[in-house]
Amino acid sequence: MQRPYQCLAAIGPTPRNPTSNFHLLAACGPRLLLLSLDEGGIVSEWSPADAVAEVPEDDEDGGGERPKKKQKTAAQAKPANIIKLTTSCNEQYVVAVTDDKCVRVFSLVDGKLREISQRCMPKRPCAIQVLPDNTTIICGDKFGDVYSLPLHPEPALEAGAEPSVATETTPEIKGKQAFKPSATNLTVHTQRNRKSLEAQMAQKAFSAKKEPLKFDRKVLLGHVSMLTDVAYAIRNVDGAERRYIITADRDEHIRISRGPPQSHIIEGYCLGHKEFVSKLCIVPGTDLLVSGGGESELYVWDWAAFTLKGTISLCDAALSMRVPGMNELSKLDSNGSVQDSISAKKDIAVSGLWVVPCQAQDDTKEAALLVAVERVPGLYVLPTSKLHVVDGKEPGLTLLNLDHPPIDVACIGDSFVVTLDAREEGQDRIRAFKMRHAPGPTQAGSMECTRDEELEEKLRCINTHAVTDSGAEAKALDDLLYGVANLRKRRGWVEPGKAGDDDPDGEAGAEDVAED
């Protein structure tokens, strides 16, 4: 079984360097590959083993003995997978997030990947972006906070120096002291409190003291719910540029806050979702924001005015087009009619929103919105020009059928590449497409996607690239690639036959605790 590529990022010519070549960054498990599209080959590869510091031969404090136990433990440590990937606006730096909560910064010098820093966050980052100034990173974590980090961290703090931001620490205690709760069985009467007391009595010692962070970070804003996505927007107001941070959380909120240094000021909210919001996408050149999550509709907002422009149904389009693989989401009878569309609506989870280039009928350049639904082998396509007229009439969606569910999308020139969950040996993990409006007046609004064979030929080397540790289990890959549906709030956490405090029928909802 081969590993699919879970993250993509494209690097191309910039206004400062218009003659630079196109490159494609692809993350495959813990490895990061850099492909030169002009040369058609992999020019650089990074793996966590390249970042591990060498263990000295002799230990000065240990009488010259080599720390064999430490070396063996380090060799057996499981490498962390890359879960987020982005580039700076000048495309000279790459920022990657691994599932061990580490933010890694790479430089692209002479077309080579070189890691220049790594910082471990207290909570797992869920969204990351490099600001247009090319010096600041904004990072949102699952705990609900958004931080700003310098792209190039300052030197480590001196021993004993006070860090700029520190984590909460427990009191330092010499040795291990037994934990003695103040409550007893004589003072606790309810069943729930007794269970809590038993858990406290089972605790044998205090937790270890947490070390303060040794790098600079600033808290910009926070949510009381699990953060899911972060977007950064710039808008001209009265001739001046104003910056905004748009955040989404698991509790159906979309918040618009001012950009640094006034990010503590909330401008407003875009409210209307009834399920979690997993993805945000700003349409370039407009004040339109597209959001999607655990519902069967996409929401189109005028985010500057905090108003809902309209919704676009995904479920009806999927059922009418009979997407391959949708049999798990809905049941069709012998006549092809829908028997259980309600369950289909409940199972939809938007896993990706991207804006890609397309060609209009008059050969002018336009943009189109791509929508991915988790585990569905296809992409929904809609011209961004149709988002302006969603009021009163819902625009039609075009489906790009794929052999496997899409994972990530990146734009290269006038084309875009899609990484697929193709795990069988010999299957293409990355494919390239070109998009244009379908010809003819009857096809107004429909899109036509064709394979870009020339670009796919340049991608052949990365499709056939073998990964030495590709023998991963299917469940481990599913956990890495598919996690959006887990944001849906579960029910039935109370004991069978006992009603919850908020639900007389015994189906009180309980929100999962955010992961570290």
UniProtKB/TrEMBL annotation:
Q: Where in the cell is it found?
A: Nucleus
Q: Which GO terms describe its biological process?
A: tRNA (guanine-N7)-methylation
The superkingdom listed in its UniProt entry is Eukaryota
Which InterPro entries does this entry report, sorted A to Z?
Trm82 (IPR028884), WD40/YVTN_repeat-like_dom_sf (IPR015943), WD40_repeat_dom_sf (IPR036322), WD40_rpt (IPR001680)
Q: Does the keyword Hydrolase apply?
A: no
Instruction: Give me the WD repeat coordinates as residue ranges.
Output: 270-302
Annotated region Disordered: where? 53-77, 492-516
Secretion signal, residue range per the UniProt entry:
none
Q: Name one GO cellular component term.
A: tRNA methyltransferase complex
Predominant location category: nucleus
Compositionally biased region (Acidic residues): 502-516
**Record's keyword terms, sorted:** Nucleus, Repeat, tRNA processing, WD repeat
Pfam families per UniProt: WD40
Pathway assigned to this chain's UniProt record? tRNA modification; N(7)-methylguanine-tRNA biosynthesis
Please give the family membership noted in the entry. Answer: Belongs to the WD repeat TRM82 family.
Function (record text):
Required for the formation of N(7)-methylguanine at position 46 (m7G46) in tRNA. In the complex, it is required to stabilize and induce conformational changes of the catalytic subunit.
Put simply, this protein is called tRNA (Guanine-N(7)-)-methyltransferase non-catalytic subunit trm82
Originating organism: Friedmanniomyces endolithicus
Q: What gene is it encoded by?
A: TRM82_1
